[in-house]
């Protein structure tokens, strides 16, 4: 056990040292078109009922994120971007240093009012308002993402955040409004044992191999008056092929199609956000098929007491099966405060009240089954960016 923990901290330490040297100017940038940025964040979580990201029932620091991001503008029409990340989130993420995204951005058409381009490589998926920036504490609304849309506690980030493939994007600007469009088609990829454990819990033991096939993500987003009002429609379509290691269980397929409707209103001191999600899953085995509709939504309000202090309140409603609404529903209430004393530093303090089991990481509670129907979480997170 100790060697595993030591290796996790060593990986995080190496990336942290690189981030420190770059942020302190030890690595110079001879060309202004080559830029480095990054962030570090560390959380403390204390819960009752269930664990969340480590042994939070006794207090957990097993939630940290470190990343180093680079952009290189080769020509006005060609850019490269990439990010290395180390993310430790209890048993859902192990702190390995991975390539989060890495792509070439080719602008095919661009003028004062519109543009069209392609990104090739590991590209970020536009899905809802927050998916493609979900790792940066400064750009998400709270320490934990809204479970209702982004499945934060279920360990699905690897499937949702980025795809290896091609992304088409375009934009159209007018005097008072702007519209953007993203369409991503990903390649097939094998899923790791950790992802399978997050998805299927103890049942993952019978899965020998799993392949995530041709994921498709698309989004159209319209904003007015410089972002005062925003609406978006997002969709995903994914397919899983699972090969069983048990002769008694035939191969399994899982198809999922999801939609998210998003709306946001920004005012002088208030920001109101709402998102609604509907995901239809089709689970097939040799013993038959089962179709399930997962419905969820949240409404969120943020109040800027001062430019550096924001208060947040959010209510989330999640139904894991619309045919069994009263038996599979969960309710999440979130209140929090954010202080940004400087542009580079941030501290968040959140309290989460959860009724139901949706979003609770099963992999963090393997020894606490069945899951408790009530969970409260106190969370503090400190973040730095450059």
Features:
386 residues; 58% strand; disordered N terminus; 16-stranded antiparallel beta barrel; mainly beta; Porin; 5 helices; 11% helix
3D structure, described in words:
The protein is mainly beta and about 375 residues long. The chain has a single domain (about 1-385), classed as Porin. It is about 10% helix and about 60% strand. The protein contains 5 helices and 17 strands. Strands 1-2-3-4-5-6-7-9-10-11-12-13-14-15-16-17 form a 16-stranded antiparallel barrel. Strand 15 and strand 16 form a beta hairpin. It starts with a helix and ends with a strand. The model is unreliable at about 1-5 and about 15-30 (pLDDT under 50). This is Porin.
Write the SSE topology.
Elements: H1 2-23, E1 34-48, E2 63-75, E3 78-89, E4 93-110, E5 114-124, H2 147-150, H3 157-160, E6 162-173, E7 177-186, E8 189-190, H4 193-200, E9 207-224, E10 229-244, E11 252-266, E12 270-285, E13 288-306, E14 309-319, H5 325-328, E15 329-342, E16 345-355, E17 374-385
Antiparallel strand pairs: 1-2, 1-17, 2-3, 3-4, 4-5, 5-6, 6-7, 7-9, 8-9, 9-10, 10-11, 11-12, 12-13, 13-14, 14-15, 15-16, 16-17
Organism: Zhongshania arctica
Protein name: Porin
Concise description?
This is Porin. This protein has helices spanning 2-23, 147-150, 157-160, 193-200, 325-328; strands spanning 34-48, 63-75, 78-89, 93-110, 114-124, 162-173, 177-186, 189-190, 207-224, 229-244, 252-266, 270-285, 288-306, 309-319, 329-342, 345-355, 374-385.
């Amino acid at each position: 056990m100790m060697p595993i923990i030591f290796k996790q901290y060593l990986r995080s330490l190496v990336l942290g040292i690189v981030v420190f040297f770059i942020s302190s100017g030890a690595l110079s940038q001879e060309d202004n078109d080559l830029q480095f940025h990054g962030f570090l964040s560390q959380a403390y979580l204390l819960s009752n009922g269930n664990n969340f990201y480590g042994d939070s029932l006794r207090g957990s620091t097993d939630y940290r994120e470190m990343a180093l991001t680079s952009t290189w503008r080769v020509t006005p029409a060609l850019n490269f971007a990439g990010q290395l990340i180390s993310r430790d989130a209890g048993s859902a993420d192990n702190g390995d240093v991975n390539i989060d995204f890495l792509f070439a951005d080719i602008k095919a058409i661009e003028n004062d009012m519109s543009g069209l381009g392609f990104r090739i490589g590991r590209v970020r998926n536009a899905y809802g308002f927050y998916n493609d920036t979900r790792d940066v504490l400064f750009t998400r609304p709270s320490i934990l993402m809204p479970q209702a849309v982004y499945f934060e506690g279920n360990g699905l980030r690897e499937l949702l955040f980025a795809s290896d493939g091609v992304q088409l994007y375009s934009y159209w600007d007018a005097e008072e409004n702007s519209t953007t469009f993203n369409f991503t088609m990903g390649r097939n990829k094998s899923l790791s044992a950790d992802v399978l454990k997050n998805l299927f819990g103890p049942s993952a033991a019978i899965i020998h191999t799993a392949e995530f096939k041709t994921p498709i993500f698309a989004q159209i987003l319209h904003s007015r008056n410089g972002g005062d009002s925003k609406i978006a429609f997002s969709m995903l379509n994914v397919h899983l092929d699972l090969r069983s290691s048990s002769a008694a269980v035939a191969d399994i397929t899982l198809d999922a199609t999801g939609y998210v409707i998003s709306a946001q209103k920004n005012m002088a001191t208030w920001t109101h956000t709402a998102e609604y999600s509907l995901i239809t899953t089709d689970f097939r085995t040799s013993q038959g098929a089962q179709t399930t509709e997962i419905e969820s939504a949240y409404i969120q309000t943020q109040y800027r007491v001062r430019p550096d202090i924001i208060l947040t309140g959010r209510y989330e409603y999640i139904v894991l099966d619309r045919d069994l609404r009263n038996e599979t529903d969960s309710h999440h209430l979130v209140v929090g405060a954010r202080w940004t004393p400087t542009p580079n530093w941030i501290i968040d303090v959140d309290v989460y009240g959860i009724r139901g089991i949706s979003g609770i990481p099963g992999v963090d509670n393997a020894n606490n089954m069945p899951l408790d129907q009530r969970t409260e979480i106190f969370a503090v997170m400190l973040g730095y960016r450059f």
